[in-house]
Design a protein that fits this description.
Layout: H1 19-29, H2 37-44, H3 48-60, E1 64-66, E2 72-74, H4 79-95, H5 118-137
Antiparallel strand pairs: 1-2
């Protein structure tokens, strides 16, 4: 995935689409809350072992904070991570899927070429091309 260089921080070791990135994004999108590992397992649909290992690494690397009783949260002073999460949000808004995953495209009432043979369609196409060529000759 390409990155916007003006926002790129080479010290920030996060890759979109990874569990590490998903956990960071979730915590920083909800900075007023602290989450237990089980909360994140359920919210992000990841295995418990993956969640606890990733949370420990993120905490050790100072990407997230942890309360004494085991709740993980976004750090207030990590503006670099806030920018990273904001760029993920922007990318999702630009390129995210806005339709239901099980939605099917609407079928038009009339299909192009419906009820006509290939020969008829070829003849119509030739006629259109001839008209276009005649129009371009005068230019």
């Amino acid at each position: 995935m390409p990155i916007l260089l003006k926002d790129h921080d080479p010290e920030l070791n996060l890759r979109p689409g990874t569990t590490k990135s998903n956990i960071v994004a979730y915590l920083y999108q909800n900075p007023e809350w602290g989450y237990s590992p089980q909360d994140l397992v359920e919210s992000l649909d990841i295995p418990r072992g993956t969640a606890t290992t990733t949370l420990k690494r993120l905490y050790d690397d100072d990407y997230i904070g942890k309360t004494d009783d085991g709740y993980y949260y976004a750090l207030r002073d990590r503006e670099d991570i806030r920018r990273y999460v904001a760029s993920l949000d922007q990318i999702h808004r630009m390129f995210g899927h806005h339709r239901e995953t099980d939605a099917t495209p609407e079928e038009p009432e009339k299909q192009i070429g419906e009820g006509r043979t290939d020969e008829e369609l070829d003849a119509e196409l030739s006629e259109i091309e001839d008209d276009m060529d005649a129009g371009n000759e005068g230019k």
